[in-house]
Specification:
mainly alpha, two-stranded antiparallel ribbon, 2 strands
Length: 111
């Protein structure tokens, strides 16, 4: 197997643009209320295994990389290592909501 086959697709570059990242943060309450935002229970054994490693937890459960930053923000975390025993559930944004906001952003800014 080649190294390229092991690489994770990070998703569209727009999700890493600082301006769009700020737009996502500005819409946290909107994301929380969306029906496609998933509320996932965190098994205690997994929480112990991935304590202080939110991005490792998300990668283990195949949450696309472009959702990691918004998931961090949706759950009130400032850093990846803030993932600890205080969390029993995790909000993960839905694809359609993220795509909708991306399209609106690109339309408004002619990107």
């Amino acid at each position: 197997m080649s190294l390229e086959a092991l690489l994770v697709n990070p998703g569209s570059q727009i999700y890493y643009d600082p301006k769009f990242m700020q737009v996502m943060v500005d819409h946290l309450e909107w994301f929380r209320k969306r029906s496609d935002t998933q509320q996932v229970s965190i098994p205690p054994s997994e929480l112990h295994k991935f304590r202080f490693n939110l991005f490792g937890f998300l990668a283990h459960y195949n949450v696309p990389q472009h959702k990691h930053y918004l998931t961090l923000q949706l759950n009130g975390l400032k850093h990846d290592h803030d993932f600890d025993y205080n969390l029993t559930t995790l909000l993960i944004p839905g694809d359609s909501s993220m795509e909708y906001l991306q399209q609106r952003y690109q339309t408004n800014y002619n990107i």
